[in-house]
Amino acid sequence: MSTGLEPPTGGADAPVSKPSQMFKSCWSCRLISGGGLILSGAYVFHAARKVMRQGGPTSMGTVAQITFAASLAAWGIVVITDPVGKAQRKT
């Protein structure tokens, strides 16, 4: 009698989980994660703009924050639209 947890005995015929395929077919998953990235980009942009609005100097850190915010929002748009594999090669 074994009291410990035993690893599953999956042979060559065991189904392989493909989380990337599941993520691509799950519209609500892409919408939630992409929307979260867009909102986090908006939050970072708002924090950078707040410093500038209070009269602070525009430093390289503020520019880096705005650039990072734009990249987060762009990443969110890419996750939502899922352009991978949709382009057709011209022959």
Provide a compact summary of the structure.
The protein has helices at residues 19-25, 27-53, 60-81. By secondary structure, it is mainly alpha-helical. InterPro entries: DMAC1-like_dom (IPR028036), DMAC_Protein (IPR053117).
How would you describe the overall organization of this protein?
Residues 25-71 form the Distal membrane-arm assembly complex protein 1-like domain. Keywords: Membrane, Transmembrane, Transmembrane helix. The structure is a single chain. This protein has helices at residues 19-25, 27-53, 60-81. The chain is mostly helical and 91 residues long. The chain has a domain at 41-82. α2 (27-53) packs antiparallel against α3 (60-81).
Q: Which characteristics define this entry?
A:
0% strand; DMAC_Protein; elongated; DMAC1-like_dom; mainly alpha; 91 residues; 3 helices
* Main beta sheet strand tally, sense and closure: none
**What class, by secondary structure content?**
mainly alpha
Rounded mean pLDDT score? 80
Strand content: under 5%
Q: What is the succession of H and E elements?
A: HHH
Helicity range of the residues? 55-70%
